[in-house]
């Protein structure tokens, strides 16, 4: 299973999905950069989530708040106190550090050495704002995006003339000084969150909590994640986040075990009442503090989920052309909404100028509508394989019939079946397939 992760990490780098940050300097603190295909796919994930929240549901509006906020925010939210600290232990022998709750035994998991007493370690990242060092304000990079939503509760409510219940959705960067980042992009120190905060009457909080956990589960299923690889775990009072009255984790079966990908929380009136107290502003709606149901997922963590779920190795090869036949072929079965490249255009052979010319024309025609690649290097079988490996949905080939009838073949990634389509119908046909 570790081997599977290595293959995925290697594919991600080789094909331009994810690179280690600052690689020429030896990498940096488990940070990652999204390459040309990675940024397309991550944008697709964010687009799909945004559409799901603000398009497929009633009464949800968007927000993009600043990363930097007043340091008082983090006082009020409880993040600067023990509430947002993990317990850190260090091995007395090899000095490796661990999050205590991640260790199965009371011994170092690397060398079996004795561990120090646990110390609380705050995860907030400090920064300084202002040009004069001695006058600079110390604040923190946000550890969760939702605080910006709570601070704008009244602004949104009033400017949009909303009534409770309603929701605010936001996507943005968050930072946590994780003790043990790892498992590729599963746990990093800089990541993106997609969070929706649903403001409702306290009496309706349980109803909406159940509603949202089902809705969120369905999003993964709609995007092709198999039911048997997903589960919901209700988190006990002892293990819940400091603000949560109820918490359900949606977990995915990764090659390295079952792990959380999204949290659905009933935050009660923790946030609005504390911000009222600290700011002196009345954040009540009518005469009560709304309860907040939060759905919170990492864009990077769900990226890894979709990548792992899509990764297939086909033993014996799928392509039947002799020169392309290979022991194992990789097929990335990404959902059509998420695939970074929708179509590729290939001339059947490179040394027929008419076919190359036609292929380039088709490529230019499709490019404004769909993320599109052009490839003329290598045998046709090898080029199909290269597209399968990055999850390209349809591969279009210009061949000799193209010159006679102005048609091309459109090959389906998953079935490898081909159909002939008139060039003039291509945009319409692909567009329709994308919506099916
Ligand atoms: P964990 O227990 O894994 O540290 P958490 O319970 O602290 O996570 P939340 O605060 O509920 O996580 O954050 C909500 C979501 O944000 C998580 O489900 C995850 O998808 C994402 N997330 C949180 N921390 C990280 C991180 N360090 N790297 C990547 N994504 C993260």
CATH homologous superfamily grouping of the largest domain: Bira Bifunctional Protein, Domain 2
Q: Briefly, what CATH class of the largest domain?
A: Alpha Beta
Spatial gap, N to C terminus:
34 Å
Number of helices: 12
Most strands sheet: 7 strands, mixed
Gyration radius over CA: 25 Å
Please outline what is shown here.
The protein has 436 residues and is an alpha+beta fold. It is built from twelve helices and 21 strands.
Label this structure with key terms:
single chain; alpha+beta; BirA Bifunctional Protein, domain 2; 21 strands; 30% helix; binds adenosine-5'-triphosphate
Write a structural description.
This protein is globular. The chain has 12 helices and 21 strands. The protein is α+β, with helices and mostly antiparallel strands and 436 residues long. The strands form 6 sheets. The protein has a 7-stranded mixed β-sheet with strand order 3-9-10-14-13-12-11. A 5-stranded mixed β-sheet has the order 18-17-19-20-21, with helices on both faces. It has 2 domains: 248 residues, BirA Bifunctional Protein, domain 2 (2-Layer Sandwich); 114 residues, Rossmann fold (3-Layer(aba) Sandwich), CATH 3.40.50. The site of adenosine-5'-triphosphate has 16 residues, from strand 10, strand 13, strand 14 and helix 8.
């Amino acid at each position: 299973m570790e081997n599977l992760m290595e293959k995925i990490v290697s594919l991600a780098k080789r094909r331009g999905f994810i690179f280690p940050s600052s690689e020429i300097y030896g990498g940096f603190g488990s940070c990652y950069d999204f390459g040309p295909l990675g940024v397309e796919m991550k944008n697709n994930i964010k687009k799909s989530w945004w559409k799901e929240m603000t398009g497929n549901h009633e009464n949800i509006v968007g927000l993009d708040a600043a990363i930097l906020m007043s340091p008082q925010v983090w006082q009020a939210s409880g993040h600067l106190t023990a509430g947002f600290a993990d317990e850190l232990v260090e091995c007395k022998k090899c000095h490796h550090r661990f999050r205590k709750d991640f260790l199965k035994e009371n011994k170092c998991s690397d060398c079996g050495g004795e561990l120090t007493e646990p110390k609380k370690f705050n995860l907030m990242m400090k920064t300084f704002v202002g040009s004069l060092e001695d006058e600079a304000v110390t604040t923190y990079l946000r550890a969760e995006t939702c605080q910006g939503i709570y601070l704008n509760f009244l602004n949104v409510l009033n400017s949009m003339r909303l009534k409770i219940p309603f929701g605010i959705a936001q996507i943005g960067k968050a930072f946590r000084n994780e003790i043990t980042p790892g498992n590729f992009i599963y746990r990093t120190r800089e990541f993106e969150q997609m969070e929706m905060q649903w403001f409702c009457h306290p009496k309706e909080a349980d109803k909406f909590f159940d509603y949202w956990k089902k809705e969120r589960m369905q999003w993964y299923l709609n995007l092709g994640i198999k039911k048997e690889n997903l589960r919901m775990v209700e988190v006990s009072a002892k293990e819940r986040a400091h603000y949560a009255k109820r918490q359900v984790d949606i977990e995915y079966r990764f090659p390295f075990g079952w792990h959380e990908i999204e949290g659905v929380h009933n935050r009660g009136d923790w946030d609005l009442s504390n911000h009222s107290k600290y700011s002196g502003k009345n954040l009540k709606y009518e005469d009560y503090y709304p309860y907040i149901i939060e759905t919170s997922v990492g864009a990077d963590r769900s990226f890894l989920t979709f990548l792992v779920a899509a990764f297939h190795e086909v033993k014996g090869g799928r392509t039947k052309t002799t020169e392309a036949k290979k022991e194992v072929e990789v097929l990335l079965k990404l959902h059509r909404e998420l695939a970074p490249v929708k179509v590729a255009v290939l001339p059947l052979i490179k040394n027929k100028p008419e076919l190359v010319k036609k292929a380039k024309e088709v490529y230019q025609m499709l490019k404004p509508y769909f993320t599109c690649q052009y490839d003329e290097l290598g045998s046709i079988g090898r080029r199909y394989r290269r597209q399968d490996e990055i999850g390209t949905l349809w591969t279009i080939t210009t061949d000799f019939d193209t010159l006679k009838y102005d048609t091309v073949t459109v090959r389906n990634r998953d079935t490898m079946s081909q159909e002939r389509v008139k060039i003039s119908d291509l945009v319409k046909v692909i567009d329709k397939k994308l919506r099916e």
